[in-house]
Write a structure and sequence with these properties.
Elements lengths: L2 H21 L4 H15 L7 H32 L2 H13 L1 H15 L5 H19 L4 H15 L6 H10 L3 H34 L29 H24 L6 H9 L1 H17 L6 H10 L1 H23 L2 H10 L5 H16 L2 H16 L4 H14 L9 H10 L3 H30 L1
Helix pairs in contact: 1-2, 1-15, 2-3, 2-14, 3-6, 3-12, 3-13, 3-14, 4-5, 4-6, 4-10, 5-6, 5-7, 6-7, 7-9, 8-17, 8-18, 9-18, 9-20, 10-11, 10-12, 14-19, 15-16, 15-17, 16-17, 16-18, 17-18, 18-20, 19-20
Length: 456
């Protein structure tokens, strides 16, 4: 199919999806599957391959997030019901002052985002974000969006994340220099993202005025007049809650560091990879929460089970909608939209550094996955980068990463994680998160270009 036709199909598919979700108020999960099916047929995917393609998209997305979202939601619910998130937010709000808490949580997100996948890190931090929002009586996006954009900035540029590591391998860029220079450039880029998020969130909430009501995720016990945890129950120690957040992050970091530093023949390497897997790390934290938040505080086994089960409706909403986003992205990818767009851009004869950013940005907007955008852009420009200096190859890898940072919207599974966890509509997500990532991605390229003027 012609490139122009494929691009038109992609644009119309996104427009139809927005119409169904925003105007018709159709369930996002149903709308994603319906539009994915229609798009697959119109784009020429064989009729007998349509459902297998949808299933593959769902499977590849859920395979990586189901365990993480499920265990993360249960851990978050345990922390929330015990009063731990509120106690933690209260403590640090008094310690730092309310005005500094947003910056403090965003800095924590930036640091934690270096070794931790952005979706895993955000899910782990979600109860803390919601706790701060509750204490300061603000909407969760006040904390959630600055944290998310700071985490995403390092996710697309700094090793050991898979996109930049794979791109460095394709472009023969030095991973050590990529890590150092990537972190340096992520600092001003993250600051732009942070202040853009603060500005857009404030403007968005000002427009909403009294209508700025938090829309929490469905709660299985919302109709139960009796709260799961008594209001008079003493909240757990703040540092216990901090430990429950840090332990899974520390285990994941252990797996990352060992994978990079241990010899492949090391007997401890398989153990570290098991302990450092996000699912294992969250299970360890949940086991500790079971004992310290439940058994040690005299909760009955029935009550602990009830609290855990109450998190599942929340997890199901996030999982299904995120899986639907993965299906839509898979259909766009399989239809050839991304390839057609990348081939068109690579043939324009643009400066290589800018071409890397533009191709990655266009692919990110077209098919949703930042990692796929990074790998495709790196592959297309590998020959052009082959004769360049080592520093240029590093800068090109960073430029491509920042291209994949921006333009996150409805075909990005992380977009759905954010909107579901933070309780905002699709339209509000496009007005805030999509704009934030786009401005941040553009600023990242500008900083990279300025660095090239000095270093090349």
């Amino acid at each position: 199919m012609a490139t122009s036709a494929l691009l038109l199909i992609a644009v119309l598919a996104i427009a139809l999806l927005l119409f169904l979700v925003i105007k018709i108020k159709l369930s996002a999960f149903v709308a994603l599957l319906l539009v994915s099916m229609i798009t697959a047929i119109v784009a020429g995917i064989p009729i007998d391959k349509v459902m297998p393609t949808l299933i593959a998209g769902m499977g590849s997305t859920l395979g990586s997030i189901t365990i993480i979202v499920g265990l993360g939601a249960i851990l978050g619910r345990m922390i929330e019901v015990s009063g731990g998130a509120e106690a933690l937010a209260n403590y640090f709000s008094k310690l730092l002052g309310v005005k500094r808490t947003v910056a403090a949580v965003a800095i924590a997100g930036f640091i934690l985002g270096i070794p931790i996948f952005v979706d895993v890190g955000f899910i782990i931090l979600a109860p803390i974000v919601l706790g701060f929002a509750k204490i300061t009586k603000t909407h969760p996006i006040v904390y959630g969006l600055p944290v998310a954009v700071c985490m995403l900035a390092v996710h697309v540029v700094v090793p050991p994340h898979p996109g930049p590591v794979a791109a460095a391998n394709i472009l023969t860029a030095d991973v050590g220099m990529l890590t150092l220079l990537g972190l340096i450039l992520c600092v001003p880029t993250g600051l732009v993202g942070f202040f853009t998020a603060k500005f857009l969130v404030k403007r968005h909430l000002d427009k909403m005025g009294d209508a700025a009501v938090i829309e929490p995720l469905p709660d299985a016990n919302s109709s139960d007049p009796q709260p799961i945890a008594p209001e008079h129950e003493t909240p757990p120690n703040v540092w216990l809650i901090v430990s429950l957040v840090i332990i899974p992050i520390a285990l994941i970091m252990l797996g990352t560091v060992c994978a990079a530093s241990l010899d492949p023949s090391s007997s401890f390497l398989p153990v570290s990879q098991f302990l450092g897997a996000p699912g294992t790390a969250l299970m360890v934290a949940l086991a500790l929460a079971f004992y310290f938040l439940g058994i040690r505080r005299n909760w009955s086994l029935g009550k602990i089970g009830e609290v855990m089960d109450s998190a599942l409706p929340t997890a199901a909403v996030v999982i299904l909608v995120t899986g639907g986003g993965g299906v839509f992205g898979k259909v766009l990818s399989e239809s050839g939209v991304g390839t057609a767009l990348a081939d068109t851009l690579s043939s324009l004869g643009l400066p290589i550094l800018f071409a890397g950013w533009l191709i990655a940005a266009a692919l990110r907007a077209a098919q949703g996955s930042a990692t796929v955008a990074i790998l495709t852009a790196a592959g297309l420009l590998a020959d052009a980068a082959a004769g360049q200096s080592g520093m240029f190859q590093v800068l090109l890898t960073i430029s491509i990463g920042f291209g994949a940072l921006g333009f996150s919207h409805i075909n990005d599974s992380f977009f759905w994680i954010l909107t579901r966890y933070l309780g905002i509509s699709v339209g509000d997500g496009l007005k805030t998160w999509t704009v934030i990532t786009s401005v941040t991605g553009i600023s990242g390229f500008i900083f990279t270009y300025l660095a090239s003027l000095i270093l090349l």
